[in-house]
Specification:
This protein is an all-beta fold. It has no helices and nine strands. It has a three-stranded antiparallel β-sheet with strand order 1-9-8, with no helix packed on it. The chain binds FE2/S2 (inorganic) cluster. The site of FE2/S2 (inorganic) cluster has 10 residues, from loops. InterPro entries: Rieske_2Fe-2S, Rieske_2Fe-2S_sf.
């Protein structure tokens, strides 16, 4: 089992915003909702490419869904389920994570 590794502090991500990270050759993104963080691999289930349309921009304009920039697939923030688009019914891959004293730790 891999060790927990610190990715960032919760305050590094603004409330309601998303942020991308490169960590150990893996592309990851995080969405903050209050004190909750959702962490996924940055890979669209449709074609396996990165989702964002520009740095750290993974969400729809109203911030309610994750959106793939390539063909517009929409994903629920809390589960990663695709609810519209070419990969409807598939899911973003969750990165195992925990919060410790405000630090976001992940296990790849
Ligand atoms: S690559 Fe994401 S919707 Fe096509």
């Amino acid at each position: 089992m891999n060790k927990w590794q610190t990715l960032c502090h919760i305050d590094d991500i603004e409330e309601g915003q998303s942020k991308g990270f490169e960590h150990n050759d893996q592309s990851i993104f995080v969405v903050r909702q209050g004190q909750q963080l959702h962490v996924y691999h940055n890979s669209c289930p449709h074609l396996g490419i990165n989702l964002e349309w520009q740095d750290d921009q993974f969400l729809t304009a109203d911030g309610t869904l994750v959106q793939c920039a390539m063909h517009g697939a929409l994903f629920l923030i809390d589960t990663g389920l695709c609810i519209a688009g070419p990969c409807q019914g598939q899911r973003l891959k969750v990165v195992e994570h925990q919060l410790q004293d405000g630090r976001l730790q992940i296990r790849l």
